[in-house]
Specification:
Arginase, Chain A, single chain, two-stranded antiparallel sheet, 14% strand, 12 helices
């Protein structure tokens, strides 16, 4: 079986140029070229361009205020003085109205854009520029088109989403993510009639956003294996084994944090644990980050192409309709082959 690949040329429009990490501008790693190296590696698979979808499922996952901010922020920033004053042509927050600041007092919404940015963005790494909204919204259409293919009878479909999305919460964005493609895909599978959907996140970093979306819901499970945030890795405060959901969603979240240097054996074993945990669900979303690979600059895990192929076999063997959503993966030399290895395993 060849898994259909869904993509959109508009996902190339987001050009981060740089990030700001611990106060220092650093080169961006979530580059438009990621789309092209993955496409080049998947030439044997049927290719589909994404079709436009309305916002109904997107607003089921995200607060409309967040969507309005992301849709307008780049143009508003360009009309402001920021490029002339400080040479910054991308929206980057510097002020964050956290609980420490609010101290229980009711805040007045900030008037200035440079004050508003930190209401929605929770780090300084995730800049918004010309084309960011178009690319992120196109990535949602990519995910929804993959769901359409599965709903129409495909056993699995791969969504080449870019930028990635699993760090986006209902009201906030960060971690190089702007809209939560995997969460929207899970919501779409629920809307298509699947009673129990599992999201299995293979990205090297915990998908705090997807966890937040489904934290109190019993109909969508979220399971993740990732580098241990207690070792100092993003998202730092989430991704621990003690996080299992709340309210009606108690027990529907499962986290398997892994030590730095984890290779194929333990990583694939953890995928197997999550596959067993998801085995009674009737649809699957895979957050397919490939930054757990040894050559990737963004994590300390040491997974090989054989490991990703084995992960695909384990999750594909569940035999349920599956939407495979691209998340991280930043080594341009290897990431296309890693995605192809996973798809080969899942198809087999």
């Amino acid at each position: 079986m060849r898994i259909p690949v869904v993509w959109s040329p508009a996902t190339r429009k987001h050009v981060p140029e740089h990030e700001v990490w611990v106060g220092v501008p650093t080169p961006g790693t979530e580059l438009p070229e990621r789309v092209d190296v993955i496409l080049a590696a998947l030439q044997a698979h049927p290719l589909h361009q994404a079709t436009p979808h309305d916002d109904r499922l997107l607003t089921a996952v995200h607060d409309e205020a967040l969507l309005e901010f992301l849709a307008t922020a780049a143009d508003d920033w360009a009309r402001g003085p920021y490029d002339e004053l400080v040479g910054q042509d991308r929206v980057v927050p510097y002020f964050f109205p956290t609980d420490a600041l609010l101290a229980g007092m009711p805040p007045t919404p900030p008037a200035a854009l440079h004050g508003r940015a930190g209401v929605y963005c929770y780090d300084t790494m995730t800049l918004v520029g010309p084309g960011t909204w178009e690319a992120a919204r196109a990535a949602v259409d990519v995910a929804l088109t993959a769901v359409d293919l599965v709903t129409a009878g495909e056993r699995a479909a791969y969504a080449l989403c870019r930028p990635p999305g699993h760090h986006v919460t209902p009201r906030g964005y960060g971690g190089s993510c702007y809209l939560n493609n995997a969460a929207v895909a899970a919501e779409a599978l629920r809307a298509a009639g699947h009673e129990r959907v599992a999201v299995v996140d293979l990205d090297a970093h915990h998908g705090n956003g997807t966890q937040a979306v489904f934290w109190e819901r019993p109909d969508v499970r979220y399971g993740s294996l990732h580098v241990d945030p207690a070792a100092g890795w993003f998202p730092h405060v989430f991704g621990h084994a003690t996080e299992t959901g709340a309210g009606a969603g108690a027990g529907t979240t499962r986290n398997l944090p892994l030590p730095e240097g984890t290779g194929d054996d333990r990583w694939v074993g953890s995928v197997g644990e999550l596959a067993d945990w998801a085995s009674d669900c009737d649809a699957l979303v895979v957050s397919l980050g490939v930054d757990a690979a040894g050559d990737d600059p963004e994590s300390p895990l040491q997974v090989t192409a054989d490991g990703f192929r084995a992960a695909g076999r384990l999750l594909g063997a569940l035999g349920v309709p599956s939407v495979l959503v691209q998340e991280g993966g930043y080594d341009l030399m290897s990431m296309g082959g890693l995605v192809a290895a996973y798809l080969d395993g899942h198809a087999g």
